[in-house]
Amino acid sequence: MAKTDLVAGIDIGGTTTSFGLIDRQGNIIARSSVPTEGGIQPGRFVNLLYDRIMALMVSSSSTHRLKGFGIGAAGANSKTGIIEDPPNLSWKGKVPLASLFTSLSGLPALVTNDANAAAAGEMNYGAARRMSHFAVITIGTGIGSGVVIDGKIITGERGLAGEFGHTRAAGTTGLRRCGCGSDGCLETYTSVPGLLLTARELLDESGSSGYSGLLSTGDITGELLYQAALKRDRVAIEAYRRTGTILGTAIANLALITDPEAIILFGGMTNAGKYLFDPVMEAMNRGLLARQRGEIALLASGLDGDSAGILGAASLFRAEMRQKA
Amino acid sequence: MAKTDLVAGIDIGGTTTSFGLIDRQGNIIARSSVPTEGGIQPGRFVNLLYDRIMALMVSSSSTHRLKGFGIGAAGANSKTGIIEDPPNLSWKGKVPLASLFTSLSGLPALVTNDANAAAAGEMNYGAARRMSHFAVITIGTGIGSGVVIDGKIITGERGLAGEFGHTRAAGTTGLRRCGCGSDGCLETYTSVPGLLLTARELLDESGSSGYSGLLSTGDITGELLYQAALKRDRVAIEAYRRTGTILGTAIANLALITDPEAIILFGGMTNAGKYLFDPVMEAMNRGLLARQRGEIALLASGLDGDSAGILGAASLFRAEMRQKA
Fold it and tell me: Which domain holds residue B11?
């Protein structure tokens, strides 16, 4: 019986790393995740990840054969495949992720930006099928974007295109300090930590323990905030509203430059549904030209969980292999 | 003797319309300009423009033959060739510029956005020769941009890409009303009228007549402001500084999304040289990722006057004719 070729698709986010084994048709045969260990040496983290992927191979089926690794990573340069001083990981200097995987496995590896991987996933399997112009906005520990123009993910002159999270956000004080060293970057307001900080500030301002009683003590988590919003907690709803308004205004700027068919929001925060999408949509439409208003769709990822990232990284790997063959 | 094929390149800006006769090699054989008559019916303005171009043909040489019209216009949709409710002209509804020229002349005509025409001009003949990733920012009555990615001018899903002038500007109150109906658009601060308004506000604030004495009475013009800056007028220098800082911050946002090799500033305001370029460069670099700082060139148009617009419009017309042939 012929062996089935699989590619390991890996999505290294600021907090969680997801990975899966993906066949030629884009089916995820097996999948798992680990916390992203930004605090240990990158070589040790790659060892750990490689062991977990091999364990997944062994437990899946003996008729499978691993072809290589497609890796999407926050802060990775899509042209060079190198991660350099990633703002959300403590890895220092240049980390050659692809060659670390290859030196362990003897197999080829491709590294791309995590947001570009998500864009490839949405284009091939998700919400952006048959679209030529769209952008995927990844919302997590940071904010990233994968921008597709005329059916191609743009990478720019140095492979750094799509760094939407570090654009200056209009409609803010611009004082929040970003991991990149600048102040007022979009992601300091609209990433998950940015949202939670806004909720904390609103609680401190109001001096109250939160209408729902859910936000009274200790850390606020994304899940807690969402539960509070469901219970009509005014602090929680206002935190989503402010965050969504800042994000929607910034998305309008991106859309004025690129004129997309749709904007796809990606990441756990999108589970908040209308609490996030309504203010984003309103601010986006307010910022657009009259001729674009109501014309640009705002969509949630068309793939469950974080599948777009691992599917996209695997599909970019296969495309590169075909090109080389 | 064989006739030389010429194309009429036309650049319809918010204030001035430039036009010229351009040969196959990109030489401008003859050129002239008229004030843009945004207050009269578009059909009458096209009549006037057509007459002036025919007069230019007659006065140039009998061995020339006109092939058609390449028209760049502020607010034009590069995909449809239609101008729709241009914010800086009083033309209402949809103006089919190309068919107006064709119905007068019987010759083909192509309409594109004026900033995209400038980008084509810089790419073929100016500061962006041999570049694959750059943006031209046109500064005039409004602000436009032509964005080139992988050697192609991007137009987006609806032909509206590059509407940089209507992005929301960070670092402002966001209260200035724009011709597009929104508040706080970049062009309300960094167009020529935006710069002059800032100078006026600074004069009113300081209560003084301007250090140089040049800005005391009546209207402030761009030329007057520049002369005042040359005489070290603090109000004039501060007006350029504030304007350049807002523009540079917005350019950094554009560069974070597209990662260009260079940004090219285009339009009469660039004559202000260091008074404008220094604050733009400083704010741009402050807004970029550390890895991009000092890597993105900030250039003035590589063509004198407004040649890029008319050369670019003509070259886009020739490219379209070749494609159809």
Answer: 4-119+306-324
